[in-house]
Amino acid sequence: MNSSRQNCRPSTIRPAKARLTATETPNWQSLTKRYEQYLALARETAQAGDRIEAENLYQHAEHFYRTAALQKARKQQLT
Q: What is the DSSP annotation of the chain?
């Protein structure tokens, strides 16, 4: 058993997850802000050399980008 094994990844600070009640949905501006946060973190992580964590953060950013685009489209349909 190798108990001296250490995690080589640097610790990454991620944006705090927003807590929403069942009736709340985030608006597209807040989703866009989360997209920008994850994108910045992904770029920083990539520059630090952790490609795997950077890809994970890029995927999170993409999720918020797509969700924001859907919210914006729904808002425009209602007006």
A: --TT----SPP-PPPPPPP--TT----HHHHHHHHHHHHHHHHHHHHHT-HHHHHHHHHHHHHHHHHHHHHHHHHHHH-
Per-residue pLDDT 10s for the chain (79 aa) are 444 444 455 555 555 555 545 445 678 789 999 999 999 999 999 999 999 999 999 999 999 999 999 988 888 888 7
Q: Is 39:62 a contact under the CB 8 Å cutoff?
A: no
